[in-house]
Design a protein that fits this description.
Distance between the termini: 57 Å
Radius of gyration: 35 Å
Shape: globular
Number of strands: 30
Largest sheet: 12 strands, mixed
């Protein structure tokens, strides 16, 4: 009996739901204007949320294509005084964690630096060498990631011994397909890598893309004794947590381990901490920007858009249900439970929610397709951007949440119908309850406040981006090509001991001499105006600092301390300043006479002169670098204009330039890789990329076995550093514009309905002698209060939330008054336009018609 009664209740509820939904479809059909405005509002709110969640899911939430990826973590190294800073680790740090930690099932390390960038040659006669990018990693990395080769084997610990690294490699699957047509006999074949025969021992599986599609091979870490003894390094450590061990537990164990190492091995381990982060999260941290943090902020921004859309539709529903007061009063008077009335009103809006969701999914799908074509190429998993089941489930959840947000409030309010007044006069003279007016007013104020927060955020990003574009580089980047020319490391330097905790290397003079020959040959290429070279790509955001002493002046602090005297360091060729059009303010530029057997000289920038030689002439003074045992004093022979390291550098730093041929015969630490080649800078008369074939041939005439690589224009290099900022600005600007449009629609709807409700009141006032100005004042005052309070709430909220975008801003305060005023004025003008039509309608009311109630 109970079962039958339950089935009856379920059948009745389903029948009622079906009737309510059918009624909702009928309402949409008979009120297309309301349906279109409401559905578009919901579509915008649902669509932008789905779009950003799709990007967030792909970047931070979607599991990596690795077994039990949730147990994989990145182990960063951080300075003891700044644990928020994340950086790579030394070999000694990796070895200590691997051997002593008990929280990890396996620990591996990889390094995508110079060790993994090699020149591919072929044994076939007449082949053209090519620079290819791979990665080097410890043998334990295979176990950590749980990746097995498709064919062949992985390298062993015996093939990755210090100073005895075996010439073996594994190919990535796409390289095996592209270069070797999936040759089944590839294992055991030999390639010439950096002029060394290297054996292919395996091929990685097709679904293994951990290092990205640009990586073509995997080789052992190029371990040297100097690296093992050094306290610095460029190795990324990955750990796989043991089952049941949390990241927090592993962090506690690492803290204890690092503290013990600092005592036992202070030379290599002191003042450096370790920090654990999920591998999923760390993968979104790229040199060009932290896309994960940006997407989290954007997801918060689109929630504001959704709330505005909900408030918009809720306001429309309150206005529409006001006309059903008689119907609802009759139903309640006849005994309909209030809960049934609320359920009916909520259920009737399901067709509207579904329509908005379908339109929103369409907008999100189109937005993803557009994003995939225009997004920065380094955006994580860009090739996998497509709505999947997770995204659709999210959209369904957002749709249901949206439905509840915009429908329950109006339903609750509409169900509070007083029975006497509607039944007595059929609502003819009803002017709307105070509760309903207060609710609509609160919705408008909330819309204005939320829209202003988004407008302020967008305005800050736009002003920041404009500031980046206007940042004076100090040189001319137009029509300038850059390329990298680098000899094999094994031919350019060899270990020579240790110096201050890092490796010391003897550097061959061959790279510098070869660079000089390439310089002369490229200068003869037709279309080349000037050519020079530098240890760093100009304006690339990459810097190298060097500690120094000024002859005759005391040190500001002791050598080796964080506050010691340092300056950015550039090793450059002759004509470097004239090629980039950096003005020489005093003294001279480097010339062919500044050779290795002549007195060592330097040039400094104006910021250096201002900081270290105030009120005196630096020309003729001497500085000495505090980096190598054989350094000697260098005379300052020139002062050049200030430049910035990249478009995102806000302040001017002291810079020291040295002739590249006057570097010492030794180098210390990872910086030795900067000595095996140079980054060429070529100014042309036309599009620089058109001269690339001619430049390739010119370089090959000097050294046919060393190809050029990393070919870009300086303008492309600049763009690569600001494209994440451009993306951030564009999306926040788009969401701000959507929010303003939705807020304008909401303001218009509320004001139009308010005028309609007060038509009789306005008619009475005009019949008693009130003129159009009085009526205008009445309506405008109401709108001004709503908008004014909304703006005040918006400014307060924007100030409170300003810290969220502070880290992404460039040379602008998060509380910049110009931005706040401009956003407020823009929103105020938009609101005024939205109020214009209802205000004019109020002023044109005919008292006779209004008093007749028509």
């Amino acid at each position: 009996m109970l079962s039958g009664r339950f089935r009856g209740i379920v059948a009745r509820v389903l029948s009622e739901l079906g009737r309510d939904i059918a009624h909702g479809v009928g309402v949409l059909r008979h009120n297309p204007g309301f349906g279109v405005v409401a559905a578009v509002s919901l579509a915008l709110g649902v669509g932008v949320n789905t779009l950003i969640f799709s990007l967030l899911d792909s970047t931070l939430l979607q599991p990596l294509a690795l077994p039990e990826a949730d147990r994989l973590v990145t182990i960063w190294s951080s300075p003891a005084n700044n644990r928020e800073q994340r950086g790579p680790s030394s070999i000694s740090r990796f070895a200590a964690i691997k051997e002593s930690s008990r929280s990890f099932e396996a620990v591996g390390a990889y390094n995508g630096g110079p060790c993994a960038t090699k020149t591919l040659g072929s044994d076939e006669r007449g082949s053209v060498p090519e620079r290819i990018v791979g990665t080097s990693m410890s043998p334990s990395m295979f176990a950590t990631l749980r990746v097995k080769p498709l064919v062949g084997r992985v390298f062993t610990e015996e093939e990755d011994l210090v100073d005895q690294v075996a010439p073996v490699m594994l190919l990535t699957h796409h390289t095996w397909e592209r270069r070797f047509a999936r040759d089944p006999q590839i294992v055991g074949k030999t390639l010439t890598m950096d002029r060394v025969p290297t054996t292919i021992i395996g091929v990685l599986p097709a679904d293994f893309d951990f290092f990205g599609q640009h990586v073509e091979f995997v080789a052992p870490l190029c371990l040297t004794r100097a690296q093992v003894e050094s306290r610095v390094g460029g190795n990324q450590i990955i750990g796989r947590l043991k089952p049941g061990v949390s990241a927090g537990q592993a962090q506690l164990e690492l803290d204890g381990l690092i503290a013990r190492l600092a005592v036992e091995d202070p030379r290599r381990q002191a003042d450096v901490m370790a920090r654990i982060e999920s591998l999923q999260r760390s993968r979104a941290r790229l040199p060009s920007g932290d896309y994960g943090a940006a997407l989290i902020v954007l997801q918060g921004a689109v929630v504001f858009v959704l709330l505005i859309a909900c408030a918009n539709v809720a306001g429309l529903l309150i206005a529409r249900t006001a006309g059903r007061r008689n119907e609802l009063a009759v139903r309640i008077a006849l005994g309909a439970p209030r809960g049934r009335v609320i359920r009916q009103l909520v259920t009737e809006q399901l067709p509207l929610s579904m329509l908005g969701a379908l339109l929103g999914i369409g907008l999100a799908w189109g937005g993803l397709a557009l994003f995939a074509r225009t997004a920065p190429p380094d955006f994580p998993r860009l090739d996998q951007l497509t709505p999947d089941t997770r995204v659709l489930v999210f959209t369904l959840g957002v749709t249901l949440l949206t439905h509840l947000l915009f429908s329950i409030g109006p339903a609750l309010q509409a169900s509070k119908v007083p029975l006497v007044e509607p039944l007595k006069d059929s609502g003819r003279y009803a002017t709307g309850g105070a509760d309903r007016r207060r609710t609509r007013s609160a919705l408008v104020m909330g819309q204005v406040a939320l829209a202003l927060v988004l407008l302020v955020g967008a305005g800050l990003m736009i002003r920041s981006f404009v500031g980046v574009l206007r940042n004076n580089l100090g040189g001319d980047p137009t029509n300038v090509l850059t390329f990298d020319f680098r000899l094999p490391a094994r031919e350019a330097f060899k270990p020579a001991g240790l110096f201050r905790g890092g490796g010391l290397f003897a550097v061959s003079p061959v790279p510098a001499l070869t660079v000089e020959r390439v310089l002369d040959r490229v200068k003869a290429v037709p279309g080349v105006v000037a050519v020079a070279a530098s240890n760093l790509v100009p304006f690339s955001g990459t810097t190298v600092t060097v500690p120094f002493q000024i002859e005759g002046k005391p040190l500001l602090s002791a050598p080796g301390t964080p506050s010691q005297q340092v300056a950015d360091f550039y090793a450059v060729t002759r004509d470097f300043f004239s090629t980039l059009r950096i003005p020489v303010r005093r003294g001279r530029e480097f010339t062919v006479r500044d050779t290795a057997d002549r007195p060592f000289v330097v040039a400094i920038n104006e910021a250096y002169a201002r900081q270290y030689f105030p009120n005196e002439d630096p020309i003729g003074k001497f500085v000495r670098f505090d980096v190598l045992p054989e350094e000697r004093p260098r005379e300052i022979v020139g002062i050049v204009g200030d430049t910035v390291g990249g478009p995102l550098q806000g302040s001017l730093k002291p810079i020291i330039y040295v002739p590249h041929v006057q570097q010492t015969s030794q180098a210390a630490g990872p910086g030795v890789f900067l000595r095996i080649g140079m980054n060429f800078v070529v100014r042309t008369t036309t599009d620089p990329m058109k001269l690339v074939p001619s430049i390739r041939r010119a370089v090959a005439e000097v050294d046919a076995a060393t190809p050029i690589a990393a070919i870009n224009t300086v303008e492309q290099t600049l763009d690569s550093q600001i494209r994440h900022l451009r993306l951030y600005m564009f999306l926040l600007g788009l969401f701000g514009a959507v929010a303003v449009v939705l807020a304008a629609i909401g303001i218009y709807g509320v004001m139009a309905h308010s005028v309609t409700e007060r038509t009789r009141e306005i008619g009475v006032r005009m019949a008693l002698g009130a003129g159009a100005p009085h009526v205008l004042k009445l309506v405008v005052r109401q709108a001004a209060w709503l908008i004014g309070i909304g703006l005040l709430l918006g400014v307060t909220s924007a100030v409170a939330l300003s810290r969220v975008v502070r880290s992404a801003l460039f040379q602008i305060s998060a509380t910049d008054p110009v931005t706040y005023v401009a956003a407020s004025v823009m929103l105020l003008l938009t609101a005024a336009i939205a109020c214009l039509i209802p205000t004019r309608r109020a002023a044109s009311v005919d008292p006779t018609v209004a008093l007749r109630g028509k």
